[in-house]
């Protein structure tokens, strides 16, 4: 006779593993998306950073991060009872390793998001320094606060119990994406802009990436992996109770539907906004709008109605080009891949709107909890990110020299070229056909800004 509890547990475990593999594949999407948005002379550097985010990240998260997440949850539980030994018991407990892997792919995603904001001018050693910091401390603490057993922001945590509601972020719109977007913004601000990004009057000067094709392929790969991110977080596929097994089809369907509707709405909304503001639809912002729609719905995906999913996706996509222009033109921060508008502000917006479009109706208490939770995550991320980037600056230096930036980080940091067949005798100033080192486009009439 088949034990139904064992059967359902086995199916659920395999489901989580498959979802983890899909989320891991998002690393390929991030690598292509970011490589396409930088100049050819920096493509290998961006790819290397993505590789190290995963490779170093899983080691650090296994040895420290997962345990620190449990520690953060235990120390902020309303009922206390924390044990440091139990927080790190997973290292020798084979039954916990699948859960660790699911946490690891989320941690690696948070780390990789930062890469796009600080591209083309951060020292490779400094980036690795921060990558260790985010997977060991910055992300795990927030993971523990929001998702740990009775962590600070949960209904059984100190803040959640005081407010009377637990923080809602189903799959990491703020815990993963907003955290990465805010950390990237802090890093980009501390680094300062790339050479030539602003003119003498402070006006922004476009520096086009070298491959819109890579950027779009990366976007589609990310969207594919996002089904693992969102739908996979609905970790219970079969629920056993006595002699009955329940298939959680309704919950899975809601998550899958809202994920799909929001990504489409985000791309459409961003396209409409750029058509209105720039006179023509911007392809790159269509891709970023799709991603912003996905980020916005990630925390809300199981909690809101289908029409709420569409609205959240529309708002997430629409704000992406608007917030990007504010970050660049008003704040003067060179966010290379639009990390903050796509991951930071979109994640916050979608998550704060959960009570507005909730299936169970509006709750003022829940809205208050959402606002408090977002503020806690932002405050922690800003303070710790600044400290880690500052420590990296003091120890190994943060930004490459002007000469190395002009030469390209592929050659300066790694001693190679991603596209050696396109390097002319004059060196990296002509490292890709049709472009200059400052990002201008060569035309028959000379060099233009765009």
Protein architecture, described:
64% of the residues lie in helices and 3% in strands. It has 15 helices and 4 strands. Helix 2 packs parallel to helix 5, helix 4 crosses helix 5 and helix 5 packs antiparallel against helix 13. The protein has one domain: Ammonium transporter AmtB like domains (Ammonium transporter fold, Orthogonal Bundle). It is globular and about 70 Å long. By secondary structure, it is mainly alpha-helical. Strand 1 and strand 2 form a beta hairpin. The C terminus is likely disordered. The strands form 2 sheets. The chain has a two-stranded antiparallel sheet with strand order 1-2.
Fraction of residues in helices? 55-70%
List segments where confidence is low: pLDDT < 50 over at least 5 consecutive residues: 424-450
Overall pLDDT: 93
| N to C succession of SSEs | HHHHHHHHEEHHHHHHHEE
CATH architecture: Orthogonal Bundle
Helical run tally:
15
Number of strands: 4
Gap between N and C termini, in Å? 69 Å
Instruction: Please compute the radius of gyration using only Cα atoms.
Output: 22 Å
Name of the CATH class: Mainly Alpha
- Based on Cα principal axes, name the global outline: globular
> How many domains make up the coordinates?
1
The amount of beta strand, in percent, is under 5%
Let me know the CATH homologous superfamily: Ammonium transporter AmtB like domains
Name the strands of the widest sheet in spatial order: 1-2
